[in-house]
Design goal:
There is one protein chain. By secondary structure, this protein is an alpha/beta fold. It folds into three domains: 75-143, Type II secretion system, protein E, N-terminal domain (GMP Synthetase, Chain A, domain 3); 147-166 and 179-296, 2-Layer Sandwich (Beta-Lactamase); 311-585, P-loop containing nucleotide triphosphate hydrolases (Rossmann fold), CATH 3.40.50.300. The chain contains 25 helices and 19 strands. The strands form four sheets. Strands 13-12-14-15-11-16-19 form a seven-stranded mixed β-sheet, with helices on both faces. A six-stranded antiparallel β-sheet has the order 7-6-5-10-9-8, covered by helices on one side. Strands 1-4-3-2 form a four-stranded mixed β-sheet. β5 (211-217) and β6 form a beta hairpin. Mean pLDDT is 87; it is low at 1-6 and 165-182. This is Bacterial type II secretion system protein E domain-containing protein. Belongs to the GSP E family.
Length: 591
């Protein structure tokens, strides 16, 4: 039997002695506990003071229970089935291995006596002994997904649908399902179709997808998830459910279900795993049938730090300096899905305080920030970025965030707002940082006014990070090594990131594991280029912007571009050279 943690603070002491918390954090945690009556565990994990796996390991040491991360262990489905899924959910425990006559069981709470009694009873009934391990909540949730794969769940529901509607799919080319269209209305309202849509959405959220694509594919319906920027086919469904699934999603997003000739956009909010998650819905008619894309807008509980976004070293120094300025234009550029909104969200979080009035205009509102006045534009009723910006200027703002500058009127108003003492943040669609200036001028902004107000331009992209759990040193082609050395040799030595030695370069990759789905990558981070506008640059912009002069001034200031930033992150072991080349090659092709 597992003993309870003693009433003094051995857990905190171990965290402190192992360097996982600082002395001030130690006392701050105790003070918070006394003030709130929350558990030490809740305070530490909610405030993200310690990595969840490190915390579980230390907690195991205190309880004298071995720690394991289930994501590092190959698990067989037959082992999982020893413990029914409802018990696994109720008691947050997993049977992850069977060795001879012994069950190996992971528990999130090894002190939960009801859980211990349940597994002991099950073990005795089947002549097993039990060995206990402590696991983190993240590890448990990962293992829980192994009970039901997407294909299994949808397959079961499809069986219900076929039985209910007497539909028999055929793989023979040219044959159609005659009954399907006649029963479409009933099918849309039926439990099977609702279940299929729910399962597809839930698995996408659990798999950390950013988008769901549901599209017709000949005599089938294909579902794809975009994970870490890459589209993956997740499941292929029978053709007869495609229209019903599209219509069900339309109903959920309050779109017109009888309008299939024009694109439609909508939004919905669902509660998944005790979290409210927003989805942006876009439909488009294809030849014969419609396609739908669902963008998952899962707001993080906390804004990412600059370092978590990928701004380190010289770039972090520039950003911190620029965010202290009282007025001016702060621009983030890049294509859709490059992380622009997240960067602005983090900037607003840094700027947010009781002493300033922050107002935003967004389309749509992707992140909700306490203390910030957020508005969503509605162009169909005349509430555009331009008209909204005029109204915001009468709201006594200190800081204004405009989701995107799309036209000359909005550009002119943004420059005017920056000129009259406001700090204005916004985004543009350009391929690189320099391209933001001619883009602004093309929209009709006066060059001398732009030169006076522009403070910072960030251009960014998102690249996949190497999976921490299967990362290993790796040899890459000699020509790639030469390219990395050549490009980073052009960066001023004082701006190379700490720890980089061009004479001792090491490269890494992920070999593939359960944690990353055998891809070698897990999560994404930004690469970028920053232009902090100095007086010489202001003069060049005001004098009708000579691109060559501007580029020369940039180099004299120590500017390094997106590819160079990416290669520095390669040498830090954050990503692979292959990934940086893939992303930057896309931009070179556009240019």
């Amino acid at each position: 039997m597992v003993n309870n943690i003693p009433k003094d603070h051995p857990l905190l002491n171990k965290l402190l002695t192992q360097g996982l918390i600082t002395n001030p954090q130690y006392h701050e945690i105790l003070a918070k506990q006394q003030a709130s009556n929350y558990s030490l565990e809740k305070i530490i994990l909610d405030d993200q003071l310690v990595d969840e796996e490190d915390f579980a390991r230390i907690k195991g040491e205190v309880l004298n229970v071995s720690y394991v991360d289930l994501r590092d262990i190959p698990m067989e489905r037959d082992w999982l089935k020893i413990l029914p899924q409802d018990l696994a959910i109720t008691y947050k425990m997993i049977v992850f291995a069977v060795k001879d006559d012994q069950l190996e069981v992971g528990l999130v709470e090894p002190t939960n006596f009801q859980a211990l009694e349940a597994i002991e009873y099950l073990a005795r009934k089947n002549n097993y002994k039990v060995k206990y391990y402590i696991i983190s909540k993240a590890s448990y949730e990962w293992a829980l997904k192994k009970y039901d794969t997407l294909r299994q769940e949808v397959g079961e529901v499809l069986g219900e649908a076929e039985e209910k509607f007497s539909l028999k799919a055929t793989t023979k080319k040219g044959k159609k399902l005659e009954e399907a269209e006649g029963d479409l209305d009933e099918m849309i309202k039926s439990a099977p179709v609702s279940k299929i849509v729910s399962v597809i959405i839930r698995h996408a959220v659990e798999g950390e997808a950013s988008d769901i694509h549901v599209e017709p594919m000949g005599e089938a319906s294909r579902v794809r998830y975009r994970i870490d920027g890459i589209l993956h086919t997740t499941i292929t469904l029978p053709d007869y459910v495609h229209s019903a699934i599209i219509t069900r999603i339309k109903v959920m997003a309050s779109l017109k279900i009888d309008e299939t000739r024009i694109p439609q956009d909508g939004r919905l909010r669902l509660n998944i795993g005790d979290k409210d998650i927003d989805f942006r819905i876009s439909t488009i008619p294809l030849v014969g049938k419609e396609k739908v894309v669902m963008r998952i807008l899962e707001s993080p509980e906390k804004a990412p730090t600059l370092e978590e976004l990928g701004f380190i070293g010289h770039h972090a120094d520039i950003l911190k300096k620029e965010l202290k300025k009282p007025n001016g234009l702060f621009l983030v550029t890049g294509p859709t899905g490059s992380g622009k909104s997240t960067t602005l969200f983090s900037a607003l979080d840094i700027l947010n305080s009781d002493g300033v009035n922050i107002a935003t205009l967004e389309d749509p509102v992707e992140y909700f920030v306490n203390g910030v006045n957020q508005s969503q534009v509605h162009a169909d009723i005349g509430f555009t970025f331009a008209s909204g910006l005029r109204s915001l200027l009468r709201q006594d703002p200190d800081i204004i965030m405009v989701g995107e500058i799309r036209d000359g009127e909005t550009a002119e108003l943004a420059v005017h707002a920056a000129l009259t003492g406001h700090f204005v943040l916004s985004t543009l669609h350009t391929n690189d940082a320099q391209g933001a200036i001619p883009r602004f001028l093309d929209m009709g902004a006066e060059s001398f006014l732009l030169g006076s107000t522009l403070n910072l331009i960030i251009a960014q992209r998102l690249i996949r990070k190497i999976c921490d759990r299967c990362k290993e040193e790796h040899n890459i082609p000699e020509e790639t090594v030469a390219e990395v050395k050549k490009l980073l040799g052009q960066v001023k030595p004082q701006f190379l990131y700490k720890g980089i030695d061009l004479n001792k370069m090491k490269f890494y990759h992920g070999r593939g594991c359960n944690h990353c789905g055998q891809t070698g990558y897990k999560g994404r981070i930004g690469i970028g280029e920053l232009i902090s506008i100095n007086n010489e640059m202001r003069e060049i912009i005001a004098e009708d912007f000579d691109k060559e002069r501007f580029a020369a001034e940039l180099l004299s200031q120590g500017f390094y571009d997106m590819k160079q930033d990416g290669f520095m992150k390669v040498l830090l072991g954050v990503t692979t050279a292959e990934e940086v080349i893939r992303i930057t090659r896309q931009e070179e092709a556009v240019d």
